Amino acid sequence: MAARIVHELSDVPPDRHVVTVGNFDGVHRGHQYLLNELDVHAGRHHASSLVVTFDPLPVEVLRPERAPRRLTSTPERLSLIASRGVDSLVVQRFDRDFASWPAREFVDRVTRSGNVAAWVVGADFAFGHDRTGSPELLRLLAPEYGFTVAVVERIGGHGISSTEIRRLVTSGEVAAAAELLARPYTLGGKVVEGARRGRTLGFPTANMAVPGNLVVPADGIYAGYASIDCRDDLDRALIYIGSRPTFGGESRVIEVNLLDFSGDLYRHDLAVLFIERVREDRHFATPDAMVRQMADDEADARRILDRVPAALVWQQAEPAIRIPEGARQA
Question: CATH 2.40.30.30 spans which residues of the chain?
């Protein structure tokens, strides 16, 4: 059964719940481990599982000048959370009024609205005004409210953080990022009008418009897959990110060359899955020299993708691409 997505704690179904709370940007392996533990504890308590997350993310409201780019859009994040078998998902609007709730008030509101039998949280969980709440506070309040508290240590004893994944992606280490995400890093956007230069060079590309608050990999050439309009028949892709220095340098672009596809993609939705970086971006003395290198890049990309079957990639990445309507509207 699909997760029920609501926007107010008061709209949570009246079931008995086991709850966890967090930003979950990226829904990486650490998040997935926590969500699996949530499911385990829900089963032990014969209760439903409940996730409370936020939009906007807290740092985007409290310190917008320091807010990092996101690893996932809100619909993608909700879809990935829901795919872990969660029963209910609250997308709490985060604003300065919400941020002013003292930690104890936050516990009270969540516990009473969600009829909470247990909290499942990470060891570094912090909440409430000025992040004064902690797992220790939850344990102190547990007898009063009648819930239990399960503190989940870091997966395998190691930290897997959204911050580290951002660092890997922005440095071009997309294969290493995929290990921490348990899926390829994905960007989605609309195909927009480009300079059409690739077509004249024999490598037609689709220009992607990506939301400006998402993390974009370092400049370079990447081997990957692409999904057109959320279809599951993935196409092999050669992906360019950069400012086209051979042609004098322009604004930064994302251009996707679908290796075995012919047709017009203008205004279609495209999701790109980054498998491995082929090389850095560079300036070429002539367009012909660049075309010769692009042929080598395609050959390298095909060899890389031969080792990574499209069916496996789709199995890992489907929730990040085929977003349910409920998550899309949230």
Answer: 183-329
